[in-house]
Amino acid sequence: MNLKELTISTAHQGLKNRDFSALDLTKAYLKEIDQQNSSLNAFITVTEKEALVQAKTIDKKISQKQFGKNLLEGVPLAIKDNILIKDIRCTAGSKILSNYQASYDAAVINKLKNAGVIFLGKTNLDEFAMGASNETSAFGPVKNPRDLTRVPGGSSGGSAAAVAASLSLAALGSDTGGSVRQPASFCGVVGLKPTYGRVSRYGLIAMASSLDQIGSLTKNIDDAAILLGGIEGRDEKDSTGRDFDFPSELPRPASWQNLKIGLPKEFFGHGLDSRIKEKINTLIKRIEKEGARVVEVNLSNLDYALAAYYILMPAEVSANLARYDGVKYGLAKPGKNLLETYLRSRTQGFGDEARRRIILGTFVLSAGYYEAYYAKAQAVRQLIRQDFKNIFAQVDCLLTPTTPTTAFKLGEKTNNPLAMYLSDIYTVPVNLAGLPALSMPIGEVDNLPVGLQIIGNHWQENKILSVGKAIEQFTYCS
Amino acid sequence: MITKEQLKHLARLARLQLTDEELNKYAPQLDEIVAFVGQLQKVSLSKTNQDSSADVAPLRTDQGVLRSQDEQEDLLSRAPVREGNFIKTQGVFED
Q: Which among B33, B36, B40 is the nearest to A380, CB-wise?
């Protein structure tokens, strides 16, 4: 089997036809991890023993002809290390949880276990998913498989690198402000962030709860749809879950004649690498030639989106991370009284970026500043939601670059947090509005992948996936 | 403008203890970030809907859930210090 070319569908066929066993497949990935992880640092924990047991169970089902139609059965996946798998260490990339064993399965893990997925291990991430380069991880940075001197993006950098380098067939990540799409773009894979409320976050370590969503990193659009089908669905344990009418389906390429595509002009302005812009413009000309109507639209509050995000997100972070106190679980550094225990455990447990965001959140929520910052940011969030609502009354979906640049060098932005924050500029508005969006590779600049972002209206994952599938056909043919 | 003194106070509120070196590092960084997010002051609020949180984060009434003994034990076993079926901690109002 050729791991580089394997997809979820072809793996399923291979298992079904007995071209290879689930054990062969699992061992092949474990071998890649063994060979490449020391240089990529994509995995924090490799669950070899459990994976081999799971694989043998699947093989038994295959030999007893109980292997069904479920495409995910026997598929080896990597899981971002902020999603709980019972009795497996879950660190969230933080020293404060470096010895924490998960006490239950996340809702998505429960679904995937029932589907017969094989878990290869837990992937590296920025500490508590806070970062755009994977450099804030307490377990060291992940390297971009395309160029080991560059970052893989973040915060799901380990998941993106694992899929890009064939250390796993696909992976789960989480996306609060672009943490699935941005690393997908930097590593040249497909990253899908579903609509807020489509996938349960029960068992996802909370960062900013009004924005967090679990998503997938895969090799192609079909795999993204298959994996979405495996994790979506309402769950009573996540109160933000919603019922929806359009379960994910295997996408058929969209027919361009019936589509109206919007280009938000604010996403193509100052700060965008001109070579990325050119790649996207070439693609858009092709789409127009195929018969799609392409119109320019305005997202006039985009300038404010990032500012609003960097108020709301840290505010929620400061509240969510208050639970790490050295008393209930996680790192404990006892002091002479309770206050000192808090101070010592948290100070020793949290890294730089976590501390900055906790303090920033404390600031914007503090008396005298709340109205000026937090309340204002909530109002701006509402404006942005309204902007998108108006836009989706006119068009089917939006095409934008995923990131303003290709993957940057390790260390390039670590001393300048604000510069790091600006790499989220095109992905953050989507989270503020709770929309679904995906990033897919559409070419390269200087041998580094360029990502295209497709944004859809709420619950229209099937539509953006079918647009992605149509684009995939001509990027792969060209 | 976030001063070193203000930063020290904020850190204390957030239950973090920063060294002088860290204060000197974080103060200008946070100052720059606060200046950036401060651009929202330019947005006029008159045209906005301020009641924004309801559809984003609906409140749920939690029911009392009975946990099995195994689950209880499982959660307790994660605590740094325990005594019987309690998580043990220091007193809040001790001298």
A: B40
